[in-house]
Automatic annotation (TrEMBL):
Domain Glycosyl hydrolase family 31 C-terminal: 555-639
Gene: Sp15
Listed name of the protein: SP15 protein
Organism the protein comes from: Neopipo cinnamomea
Residue intervals passing through the bilayer: 31-54
Presence of keyword Transmembrane helix: yes
Keyword tags: Membrane, Transmembrane, Transmembrane helix
PANTHER family, per database record: GLYCOSIDASE FAMILY 31, SITS-BINDING PROTEIN
Length: 639
Protein backbone atom coordinates (compact mmCIF):
# COMPACT_ATOMS: atom_id res chain seq x y z
CA UNK A 1 0.00 0.00 0.00
CA UNK A 2 0.97 3.63 -0.32
CA UNK A 3 0.89 5.92 2.67
CA UNK A 4 0.86 9.59 1.74
CA UNK A 5 1.57 11.89 4.71
CA UNK A 6 0.83 15.50 3.86
CA UNK A 7 2.55 18.25 5.79
CA UNK A 8 1.70 21.94 6.09
CA UNK A 9 5.13 23.13 7.28
CA UNK A 10 7.55 24.55 4.76
CA UNK A 11 11.13 23.72 3.98
CA UNK A 12 12.83 20.33 3.88
CA UNK A 13 11.44 17.23 5.51
CA UNK A 14 13.15 16.42 8.83
CA UNK A 15 15.70 13.66 8.25
CA UNK A 16 14.56 11.69 11.31
CA UNK A 17 10.95 11.42 10.10
CA UNK A 18 12.04 10.62 6.55
CA UNK A 19 14.39 7.80 7.54
CA UNK A 20 11.91 6.42 10.07
CA UNK A 21 9.28 6.04 7.35
CA UNK A 22 11.93 4.40 5.16
CA UNK A 23 12.90 1.82 7.77
CA UNK A 24 9.28 0.87 8.45
CA UNK A 25 8.60 -0.02 4.79
CA UNK A 26 9.36 -3.39 3.24
CA UNK A 27 11.69 -3.47 0.25
CA UNK A 28 8.98 -3.96 -2.44
CA UNK A 29 6.94 -1.04 -1.15
CA UNK A 30 9.98 1.23 -1.02
CA UNK A 31 10.27 0.77 -4.73
CA UNK A 32 6.56 1.34 -5.28
CA UNK A 33 6.45 4.63 -3.51
CA UNK A 34 9.67 5.65 -5.11
CA UNK A 35 8.36 5.03 -8.60
CA UNK A 36 5.27 7.13 -7.96
CA UNK A 37 7.08 10.38 -7.30
CA UNK A 38 9.68 9.95 -10.04
CA UNK A 39 7.01 9.12 -12.60
CA UNK A 40 5.51 12.51 -11.93
CA UNK A 41 8.55 14.73 -11.82
CA UNK A 42 11.76 12.89 -12.79
CA UNK A 43 11.57 11.43 -16.29
CA UNK A 44 15.30 10.58 -16.17
CA UNK A 45 15.27 8.86 -12.75
CA UNK A 46 13.22 5.84 -11.70
CA UNK A 47 11.83 5.36 -8.18
CA UNK A 48 11.52 7.24 -4.89
CA UNK A 49 10.83 6.03 -1.38
CA UNK A 50 7.82 8.04 -0.16
CA UNK A 51 5.22 10.59 -1.18
CA UNK A 52 5.07 14.03 0.31
CA UNK A 53 2.78 16.94 -0.56
CA UNK A 54 4.49 20.07 0.78
CA UNK A 55 3.46 23.67 1.01
CA UNK A 56 6.45 25.47 -0.52
CA UNK A 57 4.55 28.74 -0.95
CA UNK A 58 0.88 29.59 -1.47
CA UNK A 59 1.46 29.16 -5.24
CA UNK A 60 3.75 26.10 -5.50
CA UNK A 61 3.18 22.45 -4.58
CA UNK A 62 5.55 19.55 -5.34
CA UNK A 63 6.02 15.86 -4.62
CA UNK A 64 9.50 15.06 -3.35
CA UNK A 65 11.62 11.97 -2.74
CA UNK A 66 14.95 10.23 -3.35
CA UNK A 67 15.89 7.27 -5.50
CA UNK A 68 16.11 3.68 -4.18
CA UNK A 69 17.74 0.74 -6.01
CA UNK A 70 16.50 0.12 -9.57
CA UNK A 71 13.04 -1.50 -9.87
CA UNK A 72 12.52 -5.04 -11.01
CA UNK A 73 10.05 -4.26 -13.78
CA UNK A 74 8.96 -0.88 -15.12
CA UNK A 75 7.76 0.93 -18.21
CA UNK A 76 7.48 4.49 -19.46
CA UNK A 77 5.04 5.45 -22.21
CA UNK A 78 5.37 8.70 -24.15
CA UNK A 79 6.40 10.57 -21.03
CA UNK A 80 2.81 10.51 -19.77
CA UNK A 81 2.39 7.05 -18.27
CA UNK A 82 4.54 4.98 -15.97
CA UNK A 83 4.06 1.45 -14.62
CA UNK A 84 5.74 -0.79 -12.12
CA UNK A 85 4.92 -4.42 -11.32
CA UNK A 86 5.82 -6.88 -8.57
CA UNK A 87 6.05 -10.24 -10.30
CA UNK A 88 2.73 -11.98 -9.53
CA UNK A 89 1.43 -9.62 -6.84
CA UNK A 90 0.30 -6.27 -8.22
CA UNK A 91 0.90 -3.64 -10.86
CA UNK A 92 1.00 0.12 -10.35
CA UNK A 93 0.21 2.35 -13.32
CA UNK A 94 0.49 6.15 -13.16
CA UNK A 95 -0.67 8.58 -15.80
CA UNK A 96 -0.60 12.32 -16.31
CA UNK A 97 -4.22 13.48 -16.62
CA UNK A 98 -5.73 16.72 -17.97
CA UNK A 99 -5.96 19.35 -15.22
CA UNK A 100 -9.37 19.75 -13.61
CA UNK A 101 -8.86 23.53 -13.36
CA UNK A 102 -6.15 26.12 -14.05
CA UNK A 103 -3.26 25.83 -11.63
CA UNK A 104 -3.97 22.13 -11.01
CA UNK A 105 -1.86 19.05 -11.71
CA UNK A 106 -3.66 15.69 -11.84
CA UNK A 107 -2.35 12.13 -11.88
CA UNK A 108 -4.25 8.91 -12.40
CA UNK A 109 -3.33 6.10 -10.01
CA UNK A 110 -4.29 2.53 -10.87
CA UNK A 111 -3.39 -0.47 -8.74
CA UNK A 112 -4.20 -3.88 -10.25
CA UNK A 113 -3.90 -7.07 -8.17
CA UNK A 114 -2.45 -9.94 -10.16
CA UNK A 115 -3.91 -12.58 -7.82
CA UNK A 116 -7.36 -12.79 -6.15
CA UNK A 117 -5.81 -12.99 -2.66
CA UNK A 118 -4.03 -9.62 -3.01
CA UNK A 119 -5.79 -6.78 -1.17
CA UNK A 120 -4.97 -3.21 -2.14
CA UNK A 121 -4.97 -0.49 0.50
CA UNK A 122 -3.80 3.12 0.17
CA UNK A 123 -3.74 5.34 3.27
CA UNK A 124 -3.57 9.13 3.49
CA UNK A 125 -2.13 10.71 6.59
CA UNK A 126 -4.05 13.15 8.81
CA UNK A 127 -0.87 14.42 10.46
CA UNK A 128 -0.85 18.21 10.05
CA UNK A 129 -3.53 17.95 7.35
CA UNK A 130 -7.28 18.45 7.67
CA UNK A 131 -9.49 16.34 5.39
CA UNK A 132 -13.03 17.09 4.22
CA UNK A 133 -15.61 15.36 2.05
CA UNK A 134 -16.16 11.60 1.83
CA UNK A 135 -19.05 10.18 3.86
CA UNK A 136 -21.61 11.66 6.20
CA UNK A 137 -21.46 9.92 9.58
CA UNK A 138 -23.25 9.85 12.88
CA UNK A 139 -21.95 12.68 15.06
CA UNK A 140 -20.57 14.48 12.01
CA UNK A 141 -17.14 16.08 12.35
CA UNK A 142 -15.50 18.95 10.47
CA UNK A 143 -12.87 18.12 9.42
CA UNK A 144 -13.07 14.31 9.14
CA UNK A 145 -9.90 13.92 11.21
CA UNK A 146 -11.86 13.32 14.41
CA UNK A 147 -14.01 10.55 12.90
CA UNK A 148 -13.53 6.83 13.54
CA UNK A 149 -14.80 3.98 11.39
CA UNK A 150 -13.64 0.43 10.61
CA UNK A 151 -13.20 -0.56 7.00
CA UNK A 152 -16.67 -0.90 5.47
CA UNK A 153 -18.28 -0.55 2.04
CA UNK A 154 -18.44 3.03 0.85
CA UNK A 155 -22.21 3.01 0.35
CA UNK A 156 -24.91 5.36 1.63
CA UNK A 157 -26.99 4.15 4.55
CA UNK A 158 -29.56 4.99 7.19
CA UNK A 159 -27.83 6.25 10.34
CA UNK A 160 -31.03 5.61 12.29
CA UNK A 161 -30.78 1.84 11.78
CA UNK A 162 -26.98 1.65 11.52
CA UNK A 163 -25.34 4.52 13.45
CA UNK A 164 -21.88 2.99 12.95
CA UNK A 165 -22.20 2.99 9.17
CA UNK A 166 -21.98 5.76 6.60
CA UNK A 167 -24.84 8.21 6.22
CA UNK A 168 -27.12 9.07 3.31
CA UNK A 169 -24.95 11.72 1.63
CA UNK A 170 -21.45 10.84 0.48
CA UNK A 171 -19.05 11.30 -2.39
CA UNK A 172 -15.83 9.59 -3.44
CA UNK A 173 -14.10 12.93 -3.10
CA UNK A 174 -11.64 13.94 -0.37
CA UNK A 175 -10.15 17.41 -0.02
CA UNK A 176 -7.03 18.09 2.03
CA UNK A 177 -6.18 21.45 3.58
CA UNK A 178 -2.90 21.33 1.63
CA UNK A 179 -4.75 21.63 -1.69
CA UNK A 180 -4.65 17.89 -2.47
CA UNK A 181 -7.79 16.12 -3.67
CA UNK A 182 -8.39 12.38 -3.99
CA UNK A 183 -11.29 11.26 -6.21
CA UNK A 184 -12.03 7.54 -6.48
CA UNK A 185 -13.48 6.21 -9.73
CA UNK A 186 -17.25 5.59 -9.45
CA UNK A 187 -17.15 1.96 -10.61
CA UNK A 188 -14.48 0.80 -8.13
CA UNK A 189 -15.77 -1.49 -5.34
CA UNK A 190 -14.51 0.51 -2.38
CA UNK A 191 -14.02 0.09 1.35
CA UNK A 192 -13.17 3.10 3.50
CA UNK A 193 -11.72 3.20 6.99
CA UNK A 194 -11.18 6.23 9.22
CA UNK A 195 -8.68 6.13 12.08
CA UNK A 196 -9.09 9.25 14.18
CA UNK A 197 -6.27 11.79 13.73
CA UNK A 198 -4.05 9.20 12.01
CA UNK A 199 -5.22 8.44 8.46
CA UNK A 200 -8.04 7.34 6.21
CA UNK A 201 -7.61 4.35 3.92
CA UNK A 202 -9.04 3.24 0.59
CA UNK A 203 -9.31 -0.53 0.09
CA UNK A 204 -10.62 -3.03 -2.40
CA UNK A 205 -12.69 -6.03 -1.20
CA UNK A 206 -10.68 -9.17 -0.51
CA UNK A 207 -10.86 -11.96 -3.06
CA UNK A 208 -12.25 -9.78 -5.86
CA UNK A 209 -9.07 -8.98 -7.83
CA UNK A 210 -10.56 -5.56 -8.57
CA UNK A 211 -8.30 -2.61 -9.45
CA UNK A 212 -8.12 0.43 -7.17
CA UNK A 213 -8.31 3.61 -9.27
CA UNK A 214 -8.32 7.23 -8.18
CA UNK A 215 -7.35 10.67 -9.37
CA UNK A 216 -4.83 12.65 -7.33
CA UNK A 217 -4.82 16.41 -7.94
CA UNK A 218 -2.67 19.14 -6.44
CA UNK A 219 -3.88 22.72 -6.68
CA UNK A 220 -3.08 26.19 -5.46
CA UNK A 221 -6.84 26.89 -5.34
CA UNK A 222 -8.48 25.48 -2.20
CA UNK A 223 -11.98 26.28 -3.47
CA UNK A 224 -13.67 23.04 -4.58
CA UNK A 225 -16.12 23.02 -7.47
CA UNK A 226 -18.92 20.56 -8.07
CA UNK A 227 -21.12 20.18 -11.13
CA UNK A 228 -23.93 22.75 -10.91
CA UNK A 229 -27.54 21.54 -11.08
CA UNK A 230 -28.75 20.54 -14.53
CA UNK A 231 -31.95 22.55 -14.13
CA UNK A 232 -32.96 25.51 -12.04
CA UNK A 233 -33.81 24.48 -8.50
CA UNK A 234 -37.03 25.49 -6.86
CA UNK A 235 -36.15 28.25 -4.40
CA UNK A 236 -35.53 27.83 -0.67
CA UNK A 237 -38.68 27.89 1.44
CA UNK A 238 -39.62 31.42 2.54
CA UNK A 239 -42.01 29.93 5.09
CA UNK A 240 -41.37 27.05 7.51
CA UNK A 241 -42.15 23.36 7.40
CA UNK A 242 -44.26 21.88 10.22
CA UNK A 243 -44.11 18.11 10.68
CA UNK A 244 -47.40 16.51 11.67
CA UNK A 245 -47.10 14.55 14.94
CA UNK A 246 -50.82 14.02 15.61
CA UNK A 247 -53.00 10.88 15.68
CA UNK A 248 -52.76 8.47 12.73
CA UNK A 249 -55.28 5.76 13.62
CA UNK A 250 -57.49 6.40 10.59
CA UNK A 251 -57.93 8.77 7.67
CA UNK A 252 -60.63 10.66 9.57
CA UNK A 253 -58.37 11.13 12.61
CA UNK A 254 -55.48 12.32 10.43
CA UNK A 255 -57.66 14.90 8.68
CA UNK A 256 -58.99 16.18 11.99
CA UNK A 257 -55.44 16.32 13.36
CA UNK A 258 -54.16 18.24 10.35
CA UNK A 259 -56.95 20.80 10.58
CA UNK A 260 -56.40 21.15 14.32
CA UNK A 261 -52.68 21.86 13.73
CA UNK A 262 -53.52 24.47 11.10
CA UNK A 263 -55.98 26.21 13.46
CA UNK A 264 -53.35 26.38 16.20
CA UNK A 265 -50.72 27.73 13.81
CA UNK A 266 -53.14 30.45 12.68
CA UNK A 267 -54.02 31.27 16.28
CA UNK A 268 -50.32 31.85 17.05
CA UNK A 269 -49.71 33.97 13.96
CA UNK A 270 -47.88 31.20 12.07
CA UNK A 271 -50.36 30.63 9.27
CA UNK A 272 -47.78 30.29 6.48
CA UNK A 273 -45.73 27.27 5.50
CA UNK A 274 -45.96 23.58 4.71
CA UNK A 275 -47.47 20.81 6.84
CA UNK A 276 -45.49 17.59 6.29
CA UNK A 277 -47.27 14.26 6.65
CA UNK A 278 -45.14 11.17 7.37
CA UNK A 279 -45.10 7.93 5.40
CA UNK A 280 -47.61 6.10 7.61
CA UNK A 281 -50.11 8.95 7.53
CA UNK A 282 -49.68 9.26 3.76
CA UNK A 283 -50.35 5.52 3.30
CA UNK A 284 -53.55 5.72 5.38
CA UNK A 285 -54.85 8.68 3.40
CA UNK A 286 -53.81 6.95 0.15
CA UNK A 287 -55.92 3.91 1.06
CA UNK A 288 -58.90 6.16 1.76
CA UNK A 289 -58.43 7.91 -1.58
CA UNK A 290 -58.88 4.68 -3.57
CA UNK A 291 -62.59 5.45 -3.95
CA UNK A 292 -62.88 6.99 -7.46
CA UNK A 293 -63.57 10.70 -7.38
CA UNK A 294 -66.78 10.36 -9.36
CA UNK A 295 -68.29 8.06 -6.69
CA UNK A 296 -67.76 10.55 -3.86
CA UNK A 297 -70.70 12.61 -2.73
CA UNK A 298 -68.51 15.69 -2.44
CA UNK A 299 -64.88 16.68 -2.88
CA UNK A 300 -63.02 17.20 0.40
CA UNK A 301 -61.73 20.76 0.85
CA UNK A 302 -57.97 21.23 0.94
CA UNK A 303 -56.68 19.58 4.10
CA UNK A 304 -54.36 22.30 5.37
CA UNK A 305 -55.49 25.59 3.80
CA UNK A 306 -54.08 28.22 3.88
CA UNK A 307 -50.87 26.19 4.33
CA UNK A 308 -49.49 23.71 1.80
CA UNK A 309 -49.25 19.94 2.21
CA UNK A 310 -46.23 17.64 1.87
CA UNK A 311 -46.65 13.85 1.70
CA UNK A 312 -44.06 11.10 2.21
CA UNK A 313 -43.45 7.97 0.12
CA UNK A 314 -40.74 5.33 -0.05
CA UNK A 315 -39.69 2.63 -2.54
CA UNK A 316 -40.64 -0.06 0.00
CA UNK A 317 -43.88 -2.06 0.24
CA UNK A 318 -44.78 -4.32 3.15
CA UNK A 319 -45.43 -7.88 1.99
CA UNK A 320 -48.83 -7.64 3.71
CA UNK A 321 -49.75 -4.30 2.15
CA UNK A 322 -52.50 -4.00 -0.49
CA UNK A 323 -49.91 -2.48 -2.82
CA UNK A 324 -47.67 -5.57 -2.77
CA UNK A 325 -50.55 -8.06 -2.77
CA UNK A 326 -52.10 -6.31 -5.75
CA UNK A 327 -48.84 -6.65 -7.68
CA UNK A 328 -48.81 -10.38 -6.85
CA UNK A 329 -52.36 -10.75 -8.10
CA UNK A 330 -51.48 -9.01 -11.34
CA UNK A 331 -48.40 -11.17 -11.81
CA UNK A 332 -46.07 -8.18 -11.62
CA UNK A 333 -44.19 -8.99 -8.42
CA UNK A 334 -41.20 -10.52 -10.16
CA UNK A 335 -40.52 -7.46 -12.30
CA UNK A 336 -41.66 -4.66 -9.99
CA UNK A 337 -39.52 -5.56 -6.97
CA UNK A 338 -35.83 -6.25 -6.47
CA UNK A 339 -35.22 -9.99 -6.74
CA UNK A 340 -32.52 -12.54 -6.14
CA UNK A 341 -30.93 -14.02 -9.22
CA UNK A 342 -32.73 -17.32 -9.88
CA UNK A 343 -31.07 -20.66 -10.23
CA UNK A 344 -31.13 -22.20 -13.71
CA UNK A 345 -34.72 -23.01 -14.52
CA UNK A 346 -36.00 -21.25 -11.39
CA UNK A 347 -38.17 -18.16 -11.01
CA UNK A 348 -37.35 -14.76 -9.53
CA UNK A 349 -37.75 -14.44 -5.76
CA UNK A 350 -38.28 -10.94 -4.30
CA UNK A 351 -35.34 -9.74 -2.20
CA UNK A 352 -37.04 -9.05 1.13
CA UNK A 353 -35.61 -6.51 3.57
CA UNK A 354 -36.69 -4.67 6.71
CA UNK A 355 -38.05 -1.12 6.56
CA UNK A 356 -39.42 0.61 9.68
CA UNK A 357 -39.84 -2.71 11.45
CA UNK A 358 -41.74 -4.47 8.66
CA UNK A 359 -40.67 -7.12 6.15
CA UNK A 360 -40.77 -5.39 2.78
CA UNK A 361 -39.99 -5.65 -0.90
CA UNK A 362 -38.14 -2.79 -2.60
CA UNK A 363 -38.95 -1.20 -5.93
CA UNK A 364 -36.95 -2.53 -8.87
CA UNK A 365 -35.53 0.67 -10.33
CA UNK A 366 -33.88 -1.21 -13.22
CA UNK A 367 -37.32 -1.96 -14.66
CA UNK A 368 -38.78 0.83 -16.79
CA UNK A 369 -42.25 -0.61 -16.24
CA UNK A 370 -41.79 -0.60 -12.44
CA UNK A 371 -40.42 2.96 -12.41
CA UNK A 372 -43.20 4.20 -14.65
CA UNK A 373 -45.85 2.57 -12.44
CA UNK A 374 -44.28 4.00 -9.28
CA UNK A 375 -43.96 7.55 -10.63
CA UNK A 376 -47.50 7.51 -12.03
CA UNK A 377 -48.80 6.42 -8.63
CA UNK A 378 -46.87 9.25 -6.93
CA UNK A 379 -48.37 11.80 -9.34
CA UNK A 380 -51.92 10.51 -8.82
CA UNK A 381 -51.53 10.56 -5.05
CA UNK A 382 -50.05 14.05 -5.02
CA UNK A 383 -52.99 15.30 -7.06
CA UNK A 384 -55.62 13.43 -5.05
CA UNK A 385 -54.34 14.80 -1.72
CA UNK A 386 -53.60 18.26 -3.05
CA UNK A 387 -49.94 18.01 -2.02
CA UNK A 388 -47.38 20.57 -3.17
CA UNK A 389 -44.33 18.57 -2.09
CA UNK A 390 -43.41 14.88 -2.01
CA UNK A 391 -40.66 13.56 0.28
CA UNK A 392 -39.11 10.22 -0.71
CA UNK A 393 -37.54 8.33 2.17
CA UNK A 394 -35.50 5.12 1.90
CA UNK A 395 -33.62 6.24 -1.20
CA UNK A 396 -30.29 5.33 0.41
CA UNK A 397 -28.63 1.94 0.83
CA UNK A 398 -27.82 -1.21 -1.13
CA UNK A 399 -30.28 -4.01 -0.31
CA UNK A 400 -28.13 -6.63 -2.01
CA UNK A 401 -25.02 -5.67 -0.06
CA UNK A 402 -26.95 -5.75 3.22
CA UNK A 403 -27.83 -9.39 2.59
CA UNK A 404 -24.51 -10.37 0.99
CA UNK A 405 -26.21 -11.07 -2.34
CA UNK A 406 -24.42 -10.16 -5.60
CA UNK A 407 -26.22 -7.14 -7.13
CA UNK A 408 -26.84 -6.47 -10.82
CA UNK A 409 -24.01 -4.44 -12.30
CA UNK A 410 -26.12 -1.26 -12.56
CA UNK A 411 -27.01 -1.45 -8.84
CA UNK A 412 -23.48 -1.97 -7.50
CA UNK A 413 -22.41 0.48 -4.81
CA UNK A 414 -24.87 3.38 -4.73
CA UNK A 415 -26.36 2.55 -8.11
CA UNK A 416 -29.85 2.27 -6.60
CA UNK A 417 -29.71 5.78 -5.13
CA UNK A 418 -28.43 7.29 -8.38
CA UNK A 419 -31.01 5.60 -10.62
CA UNK A 420 -33.98 6.39 -8.36
CA UNK A 421 -32.93 10.01 -7.81
CA UNK A 422 -32.59 10.55 -11.56
CA UNK A 423 -36.10 9.14 -12.08
CA UNK A 424 -37.65 11.28 -9.33
CA UNK A 425 -36.43 14.45 -11.04
CA UNK A 426 -39.21 13.90 -13.58
CA UNK A 427 -41.77 14.72 -10.88
CA UNK A 428 -40.63 18.33 -11.07
CA UNK A 429 -40.12 20.97 -8.42
CA UNK A 430 -41.28 20.04 -4.95
CA UNK A 431 -39.43 16.70 -4.82
CA UNK A 432 -37.32 15.85 -1.75
CA UNK A 433 -35.07 12.78 -1.38
CA UNK A 434 -33.42 11.26 1.67
CA UNK A 435 -30.01 10.59 0.12
CA UNK A 436 -27.42 11.85 -2.32
CA UNK A 437 -24.65 9.89 -4.02
CA UNK A 438 -23.06 11.49 -7.10
CA UNK A 439 -26.40 13.24 -7.64
CA UNK A 440 -25.66 16.80 -6.52
CA UNK A 441 -26.25 18.00 -10.10
CA UNK A 442 -29.93 16.99 -9.89
CA UNK A 443 -32.53 19.66 -8.97
CA UNK A 444 -33.69 17.92 -5.80
CA UNK A 445 -33.93 18.93 -2.16
CA UNK A 446 -32.17 16.52 0.23
CA UNK A 447 -33.55 15.64 3.64
CA UNK A 448 -30.83 15.65 6.33
CA UNK A 449 -30.43 12.77 8.77
CA UNK A 450 -32.25 13.02 12.13
CA UNK A 451 -30.28 14.39 15.08
CA UNK A 452 -30.58 13.75 18.80
CA UNK A 453 -32.24 16.24 21.11
CA UNK A 454 -29.04 17.08 22.97
CA UNK A 455 -25.90 19.22 22.79
CA UNK A 456 -23.52 16.52 21.50
CA UNK A 457 -22.11 15.98 18.00
CA UNK A 458 -24.97 13.55 17.48
CA UNK A 459 -27.25 16.51 18.22
CA UNK A 460 -26.81 20.27 18.00
CA UNK A 461 -23.00 20.27 17.65
CA UNK A 462 -23.29 18.05 14.59
CA UNK A 463 -25.61 20.41 12.72
CA UNK A 464 -23.05 22.91 11.36
CA UNK A 465 -20.52 20.17 10.40
CA UNK A 466 -23.36 18.49 8.49
CA UNK A 467 -24.27 21.75 6.75
CA UNK A 468 -20.66 22.27 5.66
CA UNK A 469 -20.33 18.64 4.56
CA UNK A 470 -23.52 18.64 2.46
CA UNK A 471 -22.66 21.98 0.84
CA UNK A 472 -19.04 21.01 0.08
CA UNK A 473 -20.30 17.94 -1.80
CA UNK A 474 -22.70 20.07 -3.82
CA UNK A 475 -25.95 19.50 -1.88
CA UNK A 476 -26.76 23.13 -1.13
CA UNK A 477 -30.53 22.87 -0.87
CA UNK A 478 -31.37 20.59 2.02
CA UNK A 479 -33.97 20.32 4.76
CA UNK A 480 -32.31 20.14 8.18
CA UNK A 481 -33.73 18.07 10.99
CA UNK A 482 -36.48 19.70 13.03
CA UNK A 483 -35.60 22.41 15.55
CA UNK A 484 -34.55 20.74 18.79
CA UNK A 485 -33.80 17.39 17.09
CA UNK A 486 -36.17 14.54 16.27
CA UNK A 487 -34.42 11.68 18.10
CA UNK A 488 -34.97 11.39 21.84
CA UNK A 489 -32.03 12.72 23.80
CA UNK A 490 -31.05 14.12 27.16
CA UNK A 491 -32.46 17.58 26.44
CA UNK A 492 -35.83 16.84 24.86
CA UNK A 493 -38.08 19.93 25.21
CA UNK A 494 -35.22 22.00 26.62
CA UNK A 495 -36.08 25.67 25.85
CA UNK A 496 -32.41 26.69 25.68
CA UNK A 497 -31.61 23.90 23.19
CA UNK A 498 -34.68 24.86 21.14
CA UNK A 499 -33.58 28.50 20.94
CA UNK A 500 -29.94 27.79 20.04
CA UNK A 501 -31.11 25.31 17.39
CA UNK A 502 -33.62 27.82 16.05
CA UNK A 503 -30.89 30.44 15.70
CA UNK A 504 -28.89 28.16 13.39
CA UNK A 505 -31.72 26.94 11.12
CA UNK A 506 -32.81 30.56 10.60
CA UNK A 507 -29.83 30.81 8.22
CA UNK A 508 -30.45 27.52 6.36
CA UNK A 509 -32.60 26.86 3.25
CA UNK A 510 -35.60 25.53 5.21
CA UNK A 511 -36.78 26.02 8.79
CA UNK A 512 -38.32 22.73 9.91
CA UNK A 513 -40.27 22.20 13.13
CA UNK A 514 -41.41 19.02 14.88
CA UNK A 515 -42.80 20.14 18.21
CA UNK A 516 -44.38 23.61 17.81
CA UNK A 517 -42.80 26.23 20.08
CA UNK A 518 -45.91 26.58 22.24
CA UNK A 519 -45.56 22.93 23.34
CA UNK A 520 -41.98 23.15 24.62
CA UNK A 521 -41.53 26.73 25.65
CA UNK A 522 -43.08 29.95 26.92
CA UNK A 523 -44.44 32.95 25.03
CA UNK A 524 -40.98 34.57 24.81
CA UNK A 525 -39.72 31.65 22.69
CA UNK A 526 -42.88 31.79 20.58
CA UNK A 527 -42.25 35.47 19.85
CA UNK A 528 -38.60 34.72 19.05
CA UNK A 529 -39.74 32.00 16.62
CA UNK A 530 -41.89 34.54 14.75
CA UNK A 531 -38.91 36.93 14.57
CA UNK A 532 -36.61 34.21 13.23
CA UNK A 533 -39.14 33.19 10.58
CA UNK A 534 -39.34 36.80 9.40
CA UNK A 535 -35.54 37.13 9.37
CA UNK A 536 -35.27 33.95 7.33
CA UNK A 537 -37.87 35.18 4.83
CA UNK A 538 -36.62 38.74 4.44
CA UNK A 539 -32.83 38.43 4.86
CA UNK A 540 -31.67 34.84 4.42
CA UNK A 541 -33.73 33.63 1.44
CA UNK A 542 -32.67 36.53 -0.85
CA UNK A 543 -29.05 35.83 0.14
CA UNK A 544 -29.40 32.12 -0.69
CA UNK A 545 -30.96 32.95 -4.05
CA UNK A 546 -28.05 35.28 -4.82
CA UNK A 547 -25.43 32.63 -4.07
CA UNK A 548 -27.38 29.89 -5.80
CA UNK A 549 -26.61 31.81 -9.00
CA UNK A 550 -22.90 31.56 -8.18
CA UNK A 551 -23.31 27.86 -7.46
CA UNK A 552 -24.97 27.32 -10.81
CA UNK A 553 -22.31 29.26 -12.72
CA UNK A 554 -19.13 28.33 -10.83
CA UNK A 555 -20.01 25.28 -8.75
CA UNK A 556 -19.05 27.01 -5.48
CA UNK A 557 -20.92 25.88 -2.36
CA UNK A 558 -23.43 28.30 -0.84
CA UNK A 559 -22.52 27.44 2.78
CA UNK A 560 -18.77 27.80 3.20
CA UNK A 561 -16.24 27.04 5.94
CA UNK A 562 -14.07 29.71 7.51
CA UNK A 563 -11.06 28.55 5.47
CA UNK A 564 -12.85 29.60 2.28
CA UNK A 565 -11.68 33.17 3.01
CA UNK A 566 -8.55 32.12 4.93
CA UNK A 567 -7.15 29.19 2.90
CA UNK A 568 -3.64 29.38 4.37
CA UNK A 569 -4.55 30.03 8.02
CA UNK A 570 -4.32 26.76 10.02
CA UNK A 571 -6.71 28.23 12.61
CA UNK A 572 -9.52 28.13 10.05
CA UNK A 573 -9.05 24.45 9.12
CA UNK A 574 -10.70 23.03 12.25
CA UNK A 575 -13.47 25.56 12.94
CA UNK A 576 -16.72 23.58 13.00
CA UNK A 577 -19.10 25.97 14.80
CA UNK A 578 -19.15 28.81 12.25
CA UNK A 579 -20.21 29.03 8.62
CA UNK A 580 -20.33 31.57 5.82
CA UNK A 581 -23.22 32.23 3.46
CA UNK A 582 -21.35 33.03 0.29
CA UNK A 583 -18.51 35.41 1.05
CA UNK A 584 -20.48 38.06 2.86
CA UNK A 585 -22.28 36.75 5.97
CA UNK A 586 -20.65 34.91 8.86
CA UNK A 587 -22.83 33.02 11.35
CA UNK A 588 -21.18 32.00 14.63
CA UNK A 589 -23.89 30.61 16.96
CA UNK A 590 -23.60 29.29 20.49
CA UNK A 591 -23.55 25.46 20.65
CA UNK A 592 -22.58 24.92 24.31
CA UNK A 593 -25.26 24.51 26.97
CA UNK A 594 -25.48 27.39 29.44
CA UNK A 595 -22.92 29.50 27.58
CA UNK A 596 -23.48 33.17 26.71
CA UNK A 597 -20.09 33.93 25.18
CA UNK A 598 -17.71 32.41 22.66
CA UNK A 599 -14.57 33.12 20.63
CA UNK A 600 -15.34 34.16 17.04
CA UNK A 601 -12.85 33.72 14.21
CA UNK A 602 -13.31 36.42 11.56
CA UNK A 603 -11.84 35.04 8.30
CA UNK A 604 -10.26 36.89 5.43
CA UNK A 605 -7.26 39.00 6.29
CA UNK A 606 -7.83 42.45 4.82
CA UNK A 607 -11.62 42.19 5.04
CA UNK A 608 -13.80 44.19 7.41
CA UNK A 609 -16.75 42.66 9.30
CA UNK A 610 -19.77 44.53 10.65
CA UNK A 611 -21.28 43.07 13.82
CA UNK A 612 -25.07 43.09 13.27
CA UNK A 613 -25.70 43.11 17.02
CA UNK A 614 -23.50 46.05 18.00
CA UNK A 615 -22.81 47.80 14.64
CA UNK A 616 -19.08 47.67 15.45
CA UNK A 617 -16.55 46.87 12.69
CA UNK A 618 -13.70 44.36 13.11
CA UNK A 619 -10.74 43.28 11.00
CA UNK A 620 -10.72 39.95 9.22
CA UNK A 621 -8.04 37.40 10.05
CA UNK A 622 -8.55 37.98 13.78
CA UNK A 623 -10.24 36.27 16.71
CA UNK A 624 -12.76 38.04 18.92
CA UNK A 625 -12.21 36.64 22.40
CA UNK A 626 -15.14 36.14 24.79
CA UNK A 627 -17.72 37.62 22.46
CA UNK A 628 -20.95 38.03 24.45
CA UNK A 629 -24.17 36.51 23.07
CA UNK A 630 -27.20 36.24 25.33
CA UNK A 631 -29.86 33.60 24.76
CA UNK A 632 -31.76 36.08 22.59
CA UNK A 633 -28.74 36.80 20.35
CA UNK A 634 -26.84 34.97 17.63
CA UNK A 635 -23.48 36.41 16.49
CA UNK A 636 -23.83 37.41 12.82
CA UNK A 637 -21.31 39.51 10.88
CA UNK A 638 -21.67 41.06 7.44
CA UNK A 639 -18.59 41.72 5.31
Amino acid sequence: SITMPLSRHTGQIPESNWTLSFREMTEPWKGAVGCLGVAVFFAMTIGIISWQALEQSPEEWVLRGRAPPPPRDHCWHDGGQFCYSWEEDAELRLSLEPPAAPGTECYGVRWTPLRPDVTLKDCFSMANVSWYGGPSISAQRWPLNGAESPAQPFVSGDLGTNPDGFGPVLDRYFLGSTGVTVTVAPDVPLLLSLESHRHFCLETPAGRAEPLRYLLCISTDHHPRHPPPANRLFPPRRSPLWRYRGPEGSAAKIKRGLRSLVRRLKRHGLQEGVVALGERGTAILAAAERVPLERRKRQDPALVEPLQLSITLSPYASITSPLFLQSLHQGEAAGYWLSRQPRPGGSLIPLLTTWKGQLCARLNVTSEAALGWYLARARRLRQALGATYVIFEGVEGNSFLEQDVPPPAELAGDGYTRVLAAALVTLGNGTVVSAGASSSHLPLFVQMSPLRSDWSHAGLKGLIPSVLHYSLLGYNFFIPDTVGGSLAGESTRDPELFVRWLQIVTFLPVMAFGSPPWLCCDSWVLNLTRQCIRRHRDFVVPLLLKYSEEWQSLGHPIFRPAWWLSPTDPTAFTIEDEFLIGDEVLVAPITEKGQTWRDVFLPGEGHLWLDTNSARVFDGGTILRNYSASLAEVPVFVK
